[in-house]
Structures are given as structure tokens and as C-alpha cells.
Amino acid sequence: MGVDAADFDQDGWQDLFVSNVDQEMYSVYRNNRDETFDDVAGPLGVAAVTGLMSGWGAKFLDYDNDGNTDLFIANGHPDDKIEEHSTHVRYKEPLLVFHSEGKSFRNMSEFAGRAFSDSFAVRGMALGDFNNDGALDILVAVNNGQPLLLKNNAARGNHWLGIRLIGKKCNADAIGAQITWHAGDLRRRRLKTGGGSYLSSHDPREVLGIGPRTKIDKLEIRWPRPSGRVETFADLAVDRYITIIEGAGIK
Fold first, then answer.
1. Whole-angstrom Cα distance, residue 49 to residue 71?
2. What is the pLDDT along the chain (251 residues), one digit of tens a residue?
């Protein structure tokens, strides 16, 4: 099933999303900062719409580049005969997308486009900016069906900076790097993670959304162990991709 981690409420601590099979509902575990977590999927509105679903792909992302962490979930029941012995559960299930309202989520699925009004037997999904416009697109794998390539149109009007991190002393993909960026009144932090959904892997680049702000005042990269090196960059132009090489700066 789908699992992802991110600091969705921007308190500096990693939270978790875990999907399940039908009758169990999905979970959003908020980090209590004391090695415990609380499942807040109920008050966030995620549990109520996922009780009869089975999740195969899940990812925290900033789909509109406003600087907040949204959530995309791809679903599909594992049993293609489920409808023969269940009156409530379906084999094909809808895609879901939730927009971050800061400390809460809003289900935006009904407004997200034609693909979200249909149902699929999803078995994996991967994020990647296939046309390099700074808006993260989504590729969804469908069991016994054609894949879906969802082009992102929601980030128009907001600014962003795309970065690719290349480790030298640490691992090559810089998995575990802490990325912090400041743009005017916006302060955000992200941990670079690896992996993906079921049989899937995401674009290794990170897209840092800043909303209507027009530059990044400060970007800090704390490279993972064994390096631990901290590098800082200032006054970065936006709406472009850059490559940062550990110890060698921007290329």
C-alpha cells in the first residue's frame, strides 16, 4: 500500500501518510515530537472519503507551488472479483487530491479535472515534471489498462525553483538532505526522500514553491551523512531548474 513522509504542517517534524485496504480508512500520522504519532486523518477529512478504498500510490507534494504540502492518492482494489461478493466496495476507484489549507486539508478531487471523475484499478504512480515547467505532473499505472499522464495546470501564476542535488561525499542522490528556503515571509523546510509508490520511482528533482513571491532570498542545503556539510545560497532567481553539486555549488 502507499506510504509517504513529509512535514505537512510545517512544524519542523516529519509526519506520515499510510493507505490501507477497504474497511480500514487511510491514516495521516502527525508527529508529536516525542517519538509518538497521532492519527489525524479524521479531523483532516481524509478518513471519511477513504473508508471503502485501497491505496496503491500516495505522495505529499505542492501541486500548485504555493509553498504548502498537498496530498495525492491513487486507488484501486486488489481483488478484481470484489464486486461479486460486496455491494459497497468497487474494483475501480477514483483518484484523490487534497489541498493544504495550512493546518488542514481540503478535498479538491471534484475540481481537479476529468480524470478525477472516473475510476481506475491503479497499481502505482510517479511524480515528475515531464515538460519542465515547474508544475509537478503525475503518471498513474493502471492494472490491465493504459497509463494516465496527468498534466498539472494548477501551478500557473505561482513561482518556483527546481533543484537537483548531486552528492559527492554523501549518497549520489542526496537522499536525507535537508532543504530550507526563505522567500519574503515564507519559510519552508523539506527532507529529501527516496523510493516511491508500488513498483514506482519519482523524479529525483525537488520543486520549491514560493507562491507569488519573485525570488528566493536564502536556500540552505544540509547534506546527509557522512558529509553533514551545510551550504547556503542567496538571492536566487526563480522559475528555472538548477543543479547543486555537494562542495561545488550551483552548476
1. 14
2. 688 999 999 899 999 999 999 988 999 999 999 999 999 999 999 999 999 999 999 999 999 999 999 999 999 999 999 999 999 999 999 999 999 987 789 999 999 999 999 999 999 999 999 999 999 999 999 999 999 999 999 999 999 999 999 999 999 999 999 999 999 999 999 999 987 778 888 999 999 999 999 999 999 999 999 999 999 999 999 999 999 999 999 98
Cα–Cα distance measured from residue 40 to residue 52, given in angstroms and rounded to the nearest whole number: 18
For residue 50, how far is the Cα from the chain centroid? Answer: 18
> To the nearest 10°, the Cα dihedral for 183, 188, 193, 198?
-100
CA–CA distance from 187 to each of 46, 109, 114, 153 (Å)?
26, 28, 34, 24
- The pTM (predicted TM-score) of the whole model is 0.94
The enclosing H or E element of 48 equals helix 46-50
